Amino acid sequence: MPPHTTKPSCPIIRQDSGHRGDSSQYRGSVFECDILIIGAGAAGLAAAAAVQDQGRRVILVEKEDYVGGTTFRSGGCMWMPNNFRMQELGIEDSKEQAERYIAAVGKATSPGLDEDIVLRDLQNRRLKAFLTQGPEMAKYFRNQGFRWMAAPSKFPDYHPHMEGAVAYGRTLDPEVFDAASLEGWVRYLQVQENVPVISRFEDLCVLTRRPFSTGCATKTVAPPQDMERPMSMGQSLIAQLLKICKEHSNVTIWTRCELQELLVSDLDGRVIGAKVLCGRSEKPVHIHASLGVVLTTGGFSQNQKMRDTYLGIGSTDGRASKISTMAGWSLAAPGDIGIALQVSQRLHADSAQLDQVWGIPTMINPGTGKVTEAMFAISKPFSFVVDGYGRRFFSESQPYGAAVRSMYERAKKGSRTAEFWLIFDDKYMQAYPIGGLQSPWLIDQAVEKGLLVRSDTVDGLSKQILVPNQSLQATLSEWNEMCDGGRDKHFHRGEDRYQQFIGDPDVTPNPCMGPVKESPFYAIKIFPGDAGTRGGPLTDEFARVLRKNGDVIHGLFAGGNASAALLESQGAGTTLAPAMTEGFIAVTYMLSLASAASSS
Fold first, then answer.
1. 1-196+235-359+534-600 belongs to which CATH class?
2. Nearest-CA neighbor of 384 among 226, 546, 512?
3. How far apart are CA 472 and CA 170, in angstroms?
């Protein structure tokens, strides 16, 4: 909501600004600021927090009740090659090594991008900006009080066999943060009381193992005693950026305000602001931004109509095929409805990668009934994934983006192959209680609700999930035979550093393979889900939005999932690192132009 003032200007933020009351009094009002940011996820908050100049006024608009977006519910880690922590600890890396690795992964996962010479040149310029400005962004926020964990993440690069990969160190995790230090600004966060704190993303891998597994007992999942409102992972990242904005005292946050359209100058076509609809008001508020507008509203994962248009499985001409990808499979925040793409297209902005997602296998959590990630569940031994014909078709422990691409490819063969099931046995259930089902009555309850399928026999299980029994029996028999030798002769499951990392080190000889033979047997449906879409307006190395003819739309910037993606899934945090860097770059560029203009 806009702050309670009738002055047509952007006031300097006070501790009581950013109310969520009735905004009807602002009908027809005009507000002014230097920088307008639409969307308060990681990219938007990073952009706002990068404006250190107290004389520069920033309005940060958020459609939802709270800030954070999809980042708030994420692991919160950032994949940043050659970062300050690696340098401090003597972990070898360089910009050139990272470039080789990023190029190798891109060529393997998106070969079409490399064939477009113009787009390839643009991406190369963006990449150089990211690898140069990204580490500077991380240092800047550290100097502003942002705290990263002292020990680097042990997550290896996701494609360890490719040139330029490193064993660990490129992923940074935010420290556990006490949101109580935000004081009144804590109202911008959706705080959950008395919940366990998982300190970092990789701990999710460990916490899905049996309680007596290696290293599991050393992981802290209780709130730190000296913190009133501890937050970790994505929640910590958002809260820490929010605190920097608070301390800068020049950022005004409006929640429950939705972008309607961009304002364009009649003189030169420059974007000069936006119209937003706030609260229950029927008339939009005009916000004029003297330096520019930054779109950081995320992608379109929760817009089913746009998914049908761009993400239909088997689509070859940009239109949806018979098999649609569903918004209900996505982990993205509810506000991920594609507004940045829509408003930029009205200005004839170019776009790319609209048919791609940040893939991650998902499932309906049998404990809560809500969609959740399934990447760790399908990677554990004593289980495997089959299609509707009861056949395996990929390495279940491969990087989650690659896993979803494999599921998409399988689904193109027909509706029967577009159904996926995780098959596991009682040993799996006892070792890795899926959905937190740690007692028999919780398991019974999940089965009764239809969230989990159970049978004493494989034949009975196949009948319940409508998979051919003979085929499932054959798959299970071959799987169990391969487990004896610890080698997946078809898909090489568990044969590289990444796959071994997310397996179970107590299982030998292959931490990702274990036989499925202890009754009862279970099945749960797996979806080719996502954490957001990758497509959006094309931007250059300064995060400026480009028209289809290559011209810059002056005054308009975009970052994060509101723009076409820069990276693939090279490692843990390849969504957030570019998002924060792009927000940082956009604001830095605007301020540098303003500084140059004032001194000339």
1. alpha beta
2. 512
3. 40
Please report the DSSP string for 33-63 in residue order. Answer: EEEEEE--SHHHHHHHHT---TTS-EEEE-S
Listed by start position, the domains of the chain span 1-196+235-359+534-600, 361-528
How does pLDDT run along the chain (600 residues), one tens digit per residue? 443 333 333 333 333 344 343 444 455 589 999 999 999 999 999 999 999 988 999 999 999 999 999 999 999 999 999 999 999 999 999 999 999 999 999 988 876 666 677 788 999 999 999 999 999 999 999 999 999 999 889 999 999 999 999 999 999 999 999 999 999 999 999 987 767 788 887 887 655 555 444 444 334 455 667 888 999 999 999 999 999 999 999 999 999 999 999 999 999 999 999 999 998 777 899 999 999 999 999 999 999 999 999 997 764 444 444 567 899 999 999 999 999 999 999 999 999 999 999 999 999 999 999 999 999 999 999 999 999 999 999 999 999 999 999 999 999 887 777 889 999 999 999 999 999 898 999 999 999 999 999 999 999 999 999 999 999 999 999 999 999 999 999 999 999 999 999 999 999 999 999 999 999 999 999 999 999 999 999 999 999 999 999 999 999 999 999 999 999 999 999 999 999 999 999 999 999 999 998 887
Cis before 160 (ω within 30) = no
DSSP state of 580: H
In the numeric block, which tokens belong to residue 416?
A: 């029967």
Cα–Cα distances (Å) from 48 to 36, 61, 122, in that order, read: 9, 11, 26
Q: What's the CATH number of domain 361-528, 3.40.50.720, 3.40.50.700, 3.40.50.620, 3.90.700.10?
A: 3.90.700.10
Question: Where is 561: in which H helix or E strand?
Answer: none
Nearest of 11, 56, 47 to residue 29 by alpha carbon:
11
Q: For residue 379, how far is the Cα from the chain centroid?
A: 20
Task: Kindly list the strands in the beta sheet with 521-526, ordered across the sheet, starting from the edge strand earlier in the chain.
Answer: 383-386, 420-425, 521-526, 453-455
Between helix 95-109 and helix 117-143 the angle, nearest 10°, is: 130
Enumerate residues 6+ apart whose C-beta is below 8 A from 496.
160, 161
Q: Which two tokens stand for residue 518?
A: 């202890």
Buried b (16+ CB within 10 A) or exposed e, 313-350: bebeeeebeebebebebbbbbebbbbbbbebbeebebb
As given in the structure block, the two tokens for residue 139 are 């240092």
DSSP 480: H
Query: Cα-flanking dihedrals φ and ψ of residue 556, to 5°?
Result: -120, 125
